Amino acid sequence: MIKKIRLLLEYNTYCMWLYDENDEIIDNDNPPEWNDDQELTSAFMAVSDLYDSFFVNTAKEFSYRGCPDEDTACRLRELFDKAVNLLNKKNNGKYIIQNDVNLDRL
Fold first, then answer.
1. Could you give the count of Cα atoms lying within 13 Å of 3 in the half-sphere of its Cβ?
2. Are 5 and 95 in contact (CB under 8 A)?
3. What pTM was computed for the model?
């Protein structure tokens, strides 16, 4: 059975989650064969970093403030599309890719 990569945006995490054949989480990282792939890592880190900027995280407060404007929303969509396209190109059918990111609700 093929392993699965789940794409999911959560605060302060890498947005690629790797699951085994039993649908158990293995790791929150690139699959082992792409651990040293700086292009893929940089693409998904850019998405995560921009998404994290939508939150307030201080000693007294943690909250989601949301996307500040449409330009930032467009930038996040562009970064995410670029990262997903790169992942699909590298994947070549090896993993099931489950995209649970909904950027329409920014």
1. 15
2. yes
3. 0.91
